TrEMBL record:
Its EC number is 2.1.1.355. Residues 1-45 form the Chromo domain. GO terms for biological process: cell differentiation; methylation; negative regulation of DNA-templated transcription; negative regulation of gene expression, epigenetic. It catalyses: L-lysyl(9)-[histone H3] + 3 S-adenosyl-L-methionine = N(6),N(6),N(6)-trimethyl-L-lysyl(9)-[histone H3] + 3 S-adenosyl-L-homocysteine + 3 H(+). This is Histone-lysine N-methyltransferase. Zn(2+) 1 binds at C131, C133, C136, C141. Pfam families: Chromo (PF00385), Pre-SET (PF05033), SET (PF00856). Residues 190-313 form the SET domain. Residues 334-350 form the Post-SET domain. It is found in: Chromosome, Centromere; Nucleus. The gene is Suv39h2. InterPro entries: Chromo-like_dom_sf (IPR016197), Chromo/chromo_shadow_dom (IPR000953), Chromo_domain (IPR023780), Chromodomain_CS (IPR023779), H3-K9_MeTrfase_SUV39H1/2-like (IPR011381), H3K9_Histone-Lys_N-MTase (IPR050973), Post-SET_dom (IPR003616), Pre-SET_dom (IPR007728). The keyword Cell cycle applies. One of its GO terms (cellular component) is chromatin.
Length: 350
């Protein structure tokens, strides 16, 4: 007879018991147990698959250890997923998935929904004026006051070229929440999944629903630091081979967004030399041109299950930005090998 070692929910390991199959009323856990066992046995080590002997009915210690670690990982990732959804303030749900390895939630990462100013930096700069339009799509609205055209069409798709700033209606405007010029400020409306990639790129982000071309997908947020501090941190990040520094150099080069410790879903978006997301500078309540908000829009139709990527150098598809605007997210000193796999891959992230 087969017996299963059971860890009882809410009880310590010292109360674990061995139970026959007929005592187990947990079909989901049993399915996960067999799936984990099958996945482990299917792994190839040193070019040879691990195949148990037919007459060996006991569970090998290595397999048991893997199954326990996988179960604990699953619980940890579920708790992290719940925490992310408690903290996010947008409509879209966040899911977490790892079918690749035993990596759990990242340590030392804190989810935020908007810029977090470093000590000594003030982000308080509310708009001094707002529109009084009854229909912002047809009247002289905030973009016109800033000397640019309204960024969106009637389908909420962006219609301006990269390098052109977006000016959305702000808290002083008389238009309501359904205004066609309020897109980025409403946050992500798509359900996204943070998943473990199988190509060695760590965590990535994929969409669980279809995203139409030229649609707002997410905002890039993090800790706002000075460019001098970014230089210092950049040296440390280079040695670790990570890239989270995004220069806010729309008109000046005073500030940088660091999403290494503080960030949102965009923290996990990987680089690609042929990306499906494009960067735009956005101004809403804070009209300080040194501190634009960074929005990521789709460059083409993105299908459900497809990974989201943007070019860390912003030289990918759809980029026709002017020479005066540098979209480079990071000041890198050590060349980092690119693993995007695109036909047009440049070989390095920098």
């Amino acid at each position: 007879m087969e017996y299963y070692l059971v860890k009882w929910k809410g009880w310590p390991d010292s109360t674990n018991t061995w139970e026959p199959l007929q005592n187990l009323k947990c079909p989901l856990l049993l399915r996960q147990f067999y799936n984990d066992k099958h996945n482990y046995l299917s792994q190839v080590k040193k070019g040879k698959a691990i195949i148990p002997k037919d007459n060996d009915k006991t569970l090998k210690p290595a397999i048991a250890e893997y199954i326990v670690k996988k179960a604990k990982q699953r619980i940890a990732l579920q708790r992290w997923q719940d925490e992310l959804n408690r903290r996010k303030n947008h409509k879209g749900m966040i899911f977490v998935e790892n079918t690749v390895d035993l990596e759990g939630p990242p340590s030392n990462f804190y989810y935020i929904n908007e810029y977090k100013p470093a000590p000594g930096i003030s982000l308080v700069n509310e708009a001094t004026f707002g529109c009084s339009c009854t229909d912002c799509f047809f009247e002289k609205c905030c973009p016109a006051e800033a000397g640019v055209v309204l960024a969106y069409n009637k389908n909420q798709q962006i219609r301006i070229p990269p390098g052109t700033p977006i000016y959305e209606c702000n808290s002083r405007c008389r238009c309501g929440p359904d205004c066609p010029n309020r897109i980025v400020q409403k946050g992500t409306r798509y359900s996204l999944c943070i998943f473990r990639t199988s190509n060695g790129c760590g965590w990535g982000v994929k969409t669980l629903v279809k995203i139409k071309r030229m649609s707002f997908v997410m905002e890039y947020v993090g800790e706002v630091i000075t460019s001098e501090e970014a230089e210092r941190r950049g040296q440390l990040y280079d040695n670790k081979g990570i890239t989270y520094l995004f220069d806010l150099d729309y008109e000046s080069d005073e500030f940088t967004v660091d999403a290494a410790r503080y960030g949102n879903v965009s923290h996990f978006v990987n680089h690609s030399c042929d990306p499906n997301l494009q960067v735009f500078n956005v101004f809403i309540d804070n009209l300080d041109t040194r501190l634009p908000r960074i929005a990521l829009f789709s460059t083409r139709t993105i299908h459900a299950g497809e990974e989201l990527t943007f070019d860390y150098q912003m030289k990918g598809s759809g980029d026709i930005s002017s020479d005066s605007i540098d979209h480079s997210p990071a000041k890198k000193r050590v060349r980092t090998v690119c693993k995007c796999g695109a036909v047009t891959c440049r070989g390095y992230l920098n």
